[in-house]
Design goal:
The protein is α/β, with parallel strands linked by helices and about 600 residues long. Helix content is about 35%, strand content about 15%.
Length: about 600
């Protein structure tokens, strides 16, 4: 098919003292009670329904409008505040059963939605039932997080969503409530030390107003057939369109105005009940937030420079000097802080070589080339980590830490993080840039002089990692001229499609931002043989055994068992210990080149 896209851009040429009127916001930015935000996010979020939305642009609005049972304690990744719940359940206070399978929350009284409706335990109950009904929504939803401990197979057990009786019985078993005591209880199928993190996530855990849901056609019929019928609303094309574009929460803000794909105004919720002891939630909001979703960074920068925006998002690193200039003029403040987002290059153990030739007629490589551990280590030692960070990411160029190197999938700031010294003390071998060692590993592999020609896949529109792939390819060719590698762009959705079925990509770029702050949200999808990334790359014992790598197969089995042990204990410290042991084995197996 052939598509034509037309763009219209207005260019305004101003005198040195003339403001760019076309960029003016409808709200006076000079008022200290108004915060204007320009985000490079064309089209904005695709939904404001917390059981449907799964993107960072919608998340920030949902987070400020809705409340959850618990709230993260600022930047901490290991403890929470009670919000809609009156206290955090523990074994000591009777909120958690001794076997860690039942969590009971007392609902706080006096909270109100922005329309004046009182929040009660029924609102909490139906909000979570609705999330469980949306687990298999398409596109995917965040509801898998709460479902992983409550439903068989995390909501993906065969037949669960086609048998109304099974679905009804499982959901009503998983969550119960007591209207008289205003308590709600979650009945887990297995202990999970991260469960309290799940109920602090507003995407899937936001408390919605039942009366409001009913009045806008989103009420749930509590029968087996009613449950089955309701699941259809989880799919794009069947969404409740009113809930897509409206919100009714008990949080500090409410929607004042929304222009589809253009902007949203968040106003203070007049019925908000401050919650003592929770920073940021212990008083009523006194400001208005106006967010515009602009199409390019140039517009966002112009808005910032002209005073039309107080905050901007989605700006490439090369605008950093412009920001420093504005800071030196006293117009803005630039702050830096770490995130929990990580990125990597990943090796594929089971390359679909037939489909690989479809990516390029000259590409060729043995199907199981990267099952050889020495080959993977050779490639890992051939990557120039310092140059990547200092020159390509720009730490040295701009004098600021846009990123820092890590080894092991659990990043700094996350429970269970191990630094390089700790990993080495536990027996991990950490690759560094060293072409001599890289060549030694390649010769040791028995595949030196093996002719290969492969693409290194990078997401389209990512020039930094494309350049990194080019440099890496050059380094690999320098240790063995028989290795030909080419940086290659692919659209994100194409990369995702390949990882879902018959993966032809020998090496490909990936990144991950956590859903909740616990190491299982990294270790399970990134290392487990059945995880999203591990499964897509064929990291399993069968493939290793048929390629005569029994020692690796044994280590993978052991790693998977540590992951399973971590998921199956209610003991927080013991879970961390299991995840760390899995981390060390995975580092030694060199699944990734950590960026």
């Amino acid at each position: 098919q052939h598509f034509e896209v037309s763009y219209i851009r207005t260019i305004f040429v101003a005198t040195p003292q003339q403001s760019v009127g076309i960029l003016k916001t409808p709200i006076n930015s000079q008022s200290l009670q108004v915060i204007n935000v320009a985000e490079v996010a064309p089209g904005g979020p695709y939904s404001f329904d917390p059981a449907v939305d799964y993107d960072i642009i919608g998340f920030e609005d949902i987070e400020n409008v809705y409340e959850t049972l618990l709230q993260y304690n600022g930047s901490s990744t290991s403890n929470e505040f009670p919000m809609v719940a009156t206290e955090i359940p523990t074994v000591a206070n009777g909120g958690i059963s001794p076997n860690y399978l039942n969590y009971t929350f007392q609902i706080r009284q006096g909270l109100k939605f922005s329309n004046g409706d009182s929040l009660n335990v029924w609102d909490v109950y139906v909000s979570y039932v609705r999330a469980l009904l949306f687990v298999q929504g398409s596109p995917g939803t965040a509801d898998w997080i709460i479902a992983q401990d409550l439903l068989p197979g995390g909501g993906w057990a065969p037949g669960l969503f086609t048998n109304g009786t099974a679905l009804y019985n499982n959901i009503t078993r998983a969550i119960t409530y007591n209207n008289a005591t205003q308590t709600i209880t979650f009945h887990l199928l297995k202990p999970d030390p991260a469960f309290l993190d799940y109920v602090a996530d507003p995407e899937g855990g936001a408390i919605m107003d039942w009366n409001w849901l009913v009045s806008h056609g989103a009420g749930i019929t509590f029968t087996p057939s009613g449950f089955i019928n309701y699941t259809s609303f989880a799919n794009e094309g069947n969404y409740n369109t009113y809930l897509e574009y409206h919100m009714m929460g008990s949080g500090p803000y409410m929607i004042g105005n929304y222009l589809l794909g253009q902007s949203i105004t968040l106003l203070p919720n007049p019925n908000y009940t401050p919650i003592p002891g929770i920073p940021g939630y212990n008083h009523k909001a006194n400001d208005t937030i106006y967010i515009q979703w602009v199409r390019d960074p140039e517009t966002a920068m112009l808005m910032l420079e002209s005073g039309q925006a107080d905050s901007i998002y989605g700006i490439p690193n090369y605008y950093y000097p412009n920001l420093l200039k504005l800071e030196n003029q006293g117009k803005i403040t630039v702050t830096s802080f770490p995130t929990l987002t990580i990125s990597w290059f990943q090796f594929n153990f089971n390359i679909n070589t037939t489909m690989l030739s479809g990516l390029g007629s000259t590409f060729h490589v043995p199907q199981y080339y990267f099952t050889n551990l020495d080959v993977r280590r050779a490639f890992a030692y051939a990557f120039n980590y310092d140059n990547y960070l200092n020159e390509l990411i720009g730490n040295k160029v701009y004098g600021v830490n846009f990123g820092f190197h890590y080894t092991g999938i659990i990043p700094d700031g996350m429970p269970g993080y191990l630094n390089a010294s700790q990993l080495e003390n536990m027996g991990a071998v950490i690759p560094t840039y060293n072409l001599t060692i890289a060549k030694q590993y390649l010769k040791q592999s028995g595949l030196y002089n093996e002719s290969i020609n492969i693409p290194i896949i990078v997401e389209s529109g990512d020039p930094i990692d494309y350049a990194a792939a080019q440099q890496w390819a050059s380094n690999l060719n320098s240790i063995d001229p028989n290795i030909q590698a080419t940086a290659m762009y692919l659209e994100f959705d194409q990369i995702t499609a390949y990882t879902a079925n018959q993966n032809p990509m020998p090496i490909y770029y990936g990144s991950w931002g956590p859903d909740y702050p616990f190491p299982s949200d990294y270790v399970v999808p990134m290392y487990s043989s059945s995880g999203f990334f591990g499964g897509a790359a064929g990291w399993n014992t069968s493939i290793l055994n048929i390629n005569d790598h029994p020692n690796q197969a044994k280590l993978v089995n052991q790693m998977n068992q540590y992951i399973l042990d971590g998921e199956s204990t209610g003991n927080y410290s013991l879970a961390i210990k299991y995840y760390d042991q899995a981390e060390v084995l995975a580092v030694n197996l060199t699944f990734y080149v950590y960026l």
